[in-house]
Amino acid sequence: MTDPEARLEELRALVAHHNRLYHELDAPELPDADFDALARELRALEAEFPEYAVPDSPTQDVGGAASPTFSTVTHAVPMTSLDNAMNADELRAWADRVARGLDGQVPTYVAELKIDGLAMSIRYESGELVQAATRGDGRVGEDVTANVRTIGDVPHRLSDPGGGVPDVVEVRGEVYMSTAVFDELNREYEAAGERPLVNPRNAAAGSLRQKDPAATARRRLSFWAYQLGQVEGGPDFTSHRETLDFIGSIGFPVNPEIRTFTSVEEVAAFCLDRQEHRHDLAYEIDGVVVKVDDLAQRELLGYTSRAPRWAIAYKFPPEERTTRLLDIQVSVGRTGRATPFAVLEPVFVGGSTVSMATLHNQDQVAIKDVRPGDTVIVRKAGDVIPEVVGPVVSLRPDGVEPWHFPANCPACGNPFVRPEGEADTRCVAPDCPAQRDQKVAYWASRGAMDIEGLGEQMVEKLTAAGLVRDPADLYALTVEQLVALERVGETSATNLVTEIDRSKQQPLWRLLTALGVRHLGPAASQALASEFHTLDAIREKSVDELAAVDGVGTVIATTVREWLQLEANQDYLERLRAAGLNFGDPEAALAAAEARAAIPQTLEGRAVVVTGAVPGHTRESAAEAIVLRGGTSPGSVSKKTFALVVGDGAGASKLTKAESSGTPIVPAERFDALLDDPDAVLADLTDAADG
Length: 691
Ligand code: IVH
What we know:
The chain is of the alpha+beta class. The strands form five sheets. Strands 12, 13, 14, 15, 16, 17 and 18 form a seven-stranded antiparallel β-sheet that branches. It has a five-stranded mixed β-sheet with strand order 2-11-10-3-9. Strands 5-4-7-8 form a four-stranded antiparallel β-sheet.
């Protein structure tokens, strides 16, 4: 082990430095998780070696000192921080400490979302907003009243909950930026060529630091209240739940996702569940805060030097970490698009080990100015592909040079092109091997023809050997040809040939998807296939006819029409047909056309949304019945919806939407009647409502 005294000194300097960057300068360089790891290591070492203790260790601070831009506010009741639990065991250990502190009394726990924003204390005198202050070091914060007044969720005057408002009341909670606002602002910044905001929390903090309140207002911040500070002349409370109800009654938004539990195991289960669904929310959370509900019990438990013993922050695993950027490379996709990506020293983030991350496009690399050799922040949130957020500039070693986008395609050597006004750089060489390989790999991929055993490596072997130039060549491959390739055995060769052969029977929509027409994905392919039944029928349709299919639209219709008409693609299509691929069922196409002609078009141009079970129908057959009558069957209710059909297990959001937009609601039992004579059914509904 290294000299603990030296490591302690180093850690104190690091933690103090990053604390200052975070709290005073609003310019954090490290993701929270990296900072927390340093602070934890420091606390552990201090506990282990009390002989090296110093009085001014940063572990004694809650946050940072106030900045000179804003005047200071001394909090009447200090704003403490929270201790963290990094997993369920640490949560249980906290609950054990609580139980011991309460001498056998059983606590009720309140679990709340830990909003990833900025703590704020907002003071009202005689019901009027008089001051808003940041947490600062917990004792002294900054006066940001003018900026907080621009937040829509914060009332300028309190509502009377009945019985009058307190003479003095401080409402505390979290200022945050919703992910929608964050994304929108970043799109604007990107369009203007400006460095993007790193994450919603930084963005919220930066927004509150604006000298001009109008600038804060443009950032559209929000607020969730979760606590009271100083209160004079208000009602008496005995529990946290009561204070929350009170906070709601005076006009503050209180987060609805609050639960009470009596066992720590239930709390742990709730934490895990919220962790799994953290991205289903309109704002970011980084954990769950668990608090003892009973205020008398809180008294008993009291505080440590930095945090209450009656609460704990259960922290989710980090979604941002730092690591070393080893190299930047460019990959060329099946459409020729060149995507720069980062080669990273492997780092565990967002639940998995990441060694590559996208850099999106040429402009993104330039704006972020990441350079091989940099320490970079890597983000992996939920199912989203990992990305490089930006460099930690202060950790950049000497001599690290800016990176330049290559002028030529690394696969074929031809010059990249970038049409004016477009974000994408492309290789447009018709014979580029990277594009060819990607096309074949896409053809075989799970969402397209789903050919097992034909991954990128196998494709590269086949194309390098000259056996495959495009997907149509796959269907002529023999076992003998495959076994002649390096490291391909008899069994895998036979399996692959069988798999390729089997793919000839894949339904038409998979073939359509596999063609790789720009914009045409599986959903639109399915819509086209089920509407027109054969590839030839689709090829004959005009852009308007294609675009009229629900889920298609003009953009897709145009590229599909162009692709199917293009002279250069005719030979390719004929080779696929000759290989025996499923181009659809002409009899079904004919039957569908005849059936359509025979059925009265009662729903011509009308959109009918179905939710829940319809007696005598499956979801698909109900939609088909609507389409056969000239209607469409979209997945959601809008102002243009003709009617919403509601059966058992209906979705609440569709119902609410229909009610608020005045869309007629038809019980599922009347679905068949609606198909025959929709106007009569709606008239009945109106009569029933009037009568
Ligand atoms: S209670 C003494 N409740 O997390 C109790 N804090 O890591 C103090 N936070 O400083 C806070 N959501 O900025 C509480 N529902 C919530 C919270 C919450 C987010 C923040 C707050 C606090 C930090 C501690």
